Give the backbone structure.
Amino acid sequence: MLGKKLHVKKNDTVVVIAGKDKAKTGKVLQILPKKDGILVEGVNITKRHTKPRGSESGSIVEKEAVIHVSNVMIYCSKCDKAVRTRTNTLEDGKKVRVCVKCGEAFDK
């Protein structure tokens, strides 16, 4: 069974609108539909302590943690801010997401 359909896709640029990383922008690295979450580059950084294994020494690794999809909005480069999207159908029948304010297409 597939998860829910989310309003963001992989490689979209998004703006965090709530939480400790509010107003940060980043690229979507991974979509997790079953958790309603996404991984955003440089947002919600957590520290992971790793134990020494064999010849490797223990260390503290910083990595992105999941953020809920409701806490982000798609970033429109033409409007230069976070925007809502609308779905438009092109002449060839293909559906694309567009900015509500300016009409800029996000799906090329």
